[in-house]
Amino acid sequence: MRAHIDTGSARRPMRATKRSAGLWLSIGLALALSAGAAHARATLRDVLGITPGMSEEDAHRRLERFGTKQDDEAGEREEGGREIWTLHHPRFTYVMLVMDREGRVEVVQGYLHKDRKPLRYGDVGDLERARQTGYYIYVWDLPARGGRPALQVQARGVDPRFPGSYSVAGRMVDAAGARDRDQREPEVTAVRPSPPRSR
Fold this sequence. Notes:
Blueprint: H1 7-38, H2 56-64, E1 67-70, E2 82-87, E3 92-99, E4 105-112, H3 121-124, E5 131-134, E6 137-142, E7 151-156, E8 165-170
Antiparallel strand pairs: 1-2, 2-3, 3-4, 4-8, 5-6, 6-7, 7-8
């Protein structure tokens, strides 16, 4: 007498196992994608801890740890409220500050070493979220969030991988969060500061 083997009951657990494996694979993929989005590189919002809106005194305290301010021949701040600081820092050679009339930082721009601790464009911010306005000029417009003001970040240079400088500028916005068209955004230039005078 031949024993009857129920092959159908053997297949059912296998199908259930395949369905479960597929379900867990889908869940794992979704979690991986969400984790990647959560850990997307945040755009830099400061240079050496200096941000738009910071007082001149606070900005000076941070920069005095690494270097000295260049003065013009009259010993006064350069025209247009700009200051150039020469630094002894592993990443930055110079920092430029633009102050508003209230003595607060309006723009901070850091000039980077070419051969020490290079910073890539992708280290400044996610390039997929940037506007490319020149061959090697990337711009990020950051909305106000969590009590932090709206900012514009620019990275620029002549190398396709490494920027020569990046800047962080305050953006003028009205109460509704729209751009205030009556206020011009400060223009950030990439002009190399003059070398320090010999003492």
